[in-house]
Amino acid sequence: MITKKDIETAQEVWGEGVVRIGSLQDNRDQCETYTKKFIAELYDFENKEVLFKPTKAAMKQFRPTKEGALSYFIGGDPNFPEDKGFALQPWTNVRFENANFIIEEKRALAMGNYYFTDLSGGETKVEYTFGYERNGDGSLKIDVHHSSLPFSSEDAS
Predict the structure, then answer these.
(1) Partners of 133 in beta bridges
(2) Cross-strand bridge partners of residue 43
(3) What are the residues facing 115 on neighbouring strands?
(4) Calpha distance 22→89 (Å, rounded)
(5) Which residue ranges in the chain fall short of pLDDT 50?
(6) Among 35, 39, 42, which Cα is nearest to 21's?
């Protein structure tokens, strides 16, 4: 059975990974190698298409492949020209605030806000839904990643 603690641990690892990616931005080879490992360890692209919809993607906002996810995190793929590398900000911290969970034996969903801290200490609030599946080796893998910027009343005008 997946527990809230399992999900919180997976979220902590994900946040630390995003921070690490940004810390490697000055060495493209190391950054790319680390990001590929990050995606392979945390996402389930090896077994299926992942429902990956990142925050700052408009032209190709749905990314069911690891190539699409890699481009979103670090940019540089001509197939995704809008990508600048979200994780290259760099961020100094990622903090999750879970609003709720749906937990089943081998599958779980978490929804809430996560906050990305920049070098000046400012936070960017992003809304998310992540789906997790327990793999045969016992690890949690992300198979749903949806994030978006919060709605603003100014957007309704």
Answers:
(1) 107, 141
(2) 142
(3) 95, 125
(4) 6
(5) none
(6) 35
Say if residue 120 is exposed, middle or buried (CB neighbours under 10 Å; 0-12, 13-18, 19+): exposed
Give tens-digit pLDDT for 104-132. 989 999 999 999 999 999 999 999 999 99
* Alpha carbon 74 to chain centroid, angstroms: 12
Q: Which domains does the chain have, with CATH numbers?
A: 4-156 (3.10.450.50)
Between CA 39 and CA 45 the distance in angstroms is 8
Span between the terminal Cα atoms of the chain, in Å = 46
Residue in this structure with the two tokens 């709720």, named with its chain if needed: 100
Single-letter amino acid code for the residue at 54? P
Token representation of residue 47: 């077994």
pLDDT value for 153: 66
3-class SS string, 75-91: CCCCCCCCCCCHHHCCE
CB 70 within 8 A of CB 90: no
> Residue 112 region, left (φ>0) first, then alpha (ψ -120 to 50), else beta?
left
Residues, the chain: 157
